[in-house]
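stuck on this:

***
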Amino acid sequence: MANTYHLEIITPEKVFFQDEVISCIFPSEDGFMSIQRNHEALVAAVVIGPVKIHLKDGTWVECATTEGFLEVRPDETMMFAQTVEWPDEIDMNRAQEAAERAKERLRQKQSWNEYQQSHIALARAMVRLKVGRKNRNIE
């Protein structure tokens, strides 16, 4: 299709996604950014959050990602992230337990580093729950 471009999402373990897409919306430090065909060259930090991919057949899919970066080239866009999960790969019970543990750690007196780690753990758990719930139609 003329309005598509190649998107690749890579983690340290695998190539998570690789296909032609219409657009990709990802969480950045400045908010959500949308990449479409012929986007200018760009390197941007990816933060914890949902990634929405507009597939070439017109449907949308969503996944949960953690930290990484995204590079837009003339012929492709590549996202490198520590972890990325499809909604059906998310263990909702495990994510809920991780959120509760992180909330409890945040209530305790901690060093700045411990606070930051707890805050990141909570953000990861919350995005996993959000993406997982949306896929399962859970409020």
Remarks:
- The mean pLDDT is 88.
- The chain is about 30% helix and 40% strand.
